[in-house]
Design goal:
The protein is of the alpha/beta class. It has one domain (about 1-240): Tetrapyrrole methylase, N-terminal domain (Cobalt-precorrin-4 Transmethylase, domain 1), CATH 3.40.1010. Helices cover about 45% and strands about 15% of the residues. The protein has eight helices and seven strands. The chain has a seven-stranded mixed sheet with strand order 1-7-6-2-5-3-4, with helices on both faces. Helix 1 packs across helix 7 (about 195-205) and helix 2 (about 30-45) packs across helix 3 (about 75-85). It is globular and about 55 Å long. The model has no long low-confidence stretch (mean pLDDT about 90). InterPro entries: Plipid/glycerol_acylTrfase.
Length: about 240
Amino acid sequence: MPKLRFIRVLLHVFVGVLTCALIFPFVAAVKREALVKRWSLQLLTLCEVKVRLLDQSGGQIPDHALIIANHVSWLDIFVINSWQACHFVAKADIRAWPIAGWLSAQAGTIFLARGKQREVRRIYEGLVHQLRDNKRIAFFPEGTTGAQGGILPFHANLFEAAIEAEVPVLPFALRYVDAQGQLHPAADFIGEMTFAESMKLILQSDVMTAELIQLPMIPTEGAHRREVAQVSRELVAKALGVSL
């Protein structure tokens, strides 16, 4: 059964490649976002990952905001995209990944090369403009994946883009649970684990549910990036029941 599921996932990835190459260049941004959202949901279905949206924001519906979340797995991007297609900020080395890097670029991922200050500044200015143009920008402020049951420190730098663009921050808490509501161990993508090893674990496991919890928006007017990062981390930790 895992082998059959793996073949289905590979075929779905192939469909994604064809869609990006043959359809994306000829359709508007709204249509591309709809295709990304549908493809992401279908991928999660093939991996037997259900998505449950939970609202702890009090019904807030932002026109535009900088979206952040804790980072557990490569699945996180597709879980968020199944809610709304976003332009993610990711490490530049992901761009070199076979197939996945190209697909990410076609889906609008913004690649950030650390240590190259001129490029970082150029990308940062681009983020500000895109936020002002009401594009959905998302990133994982932990900077890397962490095991469920904990939360890493939040890097504050990119929160400055929301402050300069004068948009709020919309935080999400993300966790993966089993049928009993316990944290699902197969979701963790940490340490020296390879993408192939993670995929094998997920396809061999029983059904898991990704809980995407929308939290109250954080205003940025007059705020400092470290303050916004800390408030975001506290909200995410509280939603996950994690002690800081």
